[in-house]
Sequence to fold (229 residues):
Amino acid sequence: MDYWRGGHAQIIAASPGLLEYRQQHLSETEYGFWPKIDDLETHIPEDRRIDGIAEVTYNKLLAPIGGRRQTALAFEDEINVFRRTLMHMGVPYSSRWYHTNNVYSETKVRDVFYIRRKDNVSRAKFKNFVNEKLASQMVEITGVTEVRSQVYLPWNKVTWNTPNVAHDNPKEAHLHASIIIGFSDEVARQEFYDRHAFNFNSELIDYASAMHAYRIDETLPFVLDGKRL
Fold:
């Protein structure tokens, strides 16, 4: 991961038009801990476990056009970093960044949840549930400092088919949304799972077939508020 946070990160960070670029380095040992319930997959198969996330947000819809040179460099450089990559994209208004009531609390620890939509649930209903209900309810919990939800466009290998890197993603393994949640400290995080997480399951199972939880070991910002760090 050293090169990802080093040379490769600087290729991405140099792209014009970025609002934000963060790397989320996920735990190699703490994952698959969402509370269990029938008909909801919480176990993460080892061959589908995710090591890290690159969050790239543009300040305008057409901004990626101006970053085509850096995108091409990153495209060719992926072989130096990754074994498998999957790009999940969202259109404008497909994500929510919630402000919490804990305005004076700094985020000390984060987790990420990947959600798989049930086959019989429409994309519109799923999007509304994740962004407007699930995420908005999480943000009201004491000790939660950050909630970011995103619902993805249908995945397509052609979107990011870098050479000599695997992009295998069978339909049954597709993921359709994510939520990054931040906590003020380890106590708040533990209380979230002890007192609140299971309560989401009663409605979650109506919309989702899988909820994959990972601890985020490290968040590395390279661009914030449009400024390269």
The chain has a mean pLDDT of 93. The CA atoms of residues 107 and 184 lie 5 Å apart.
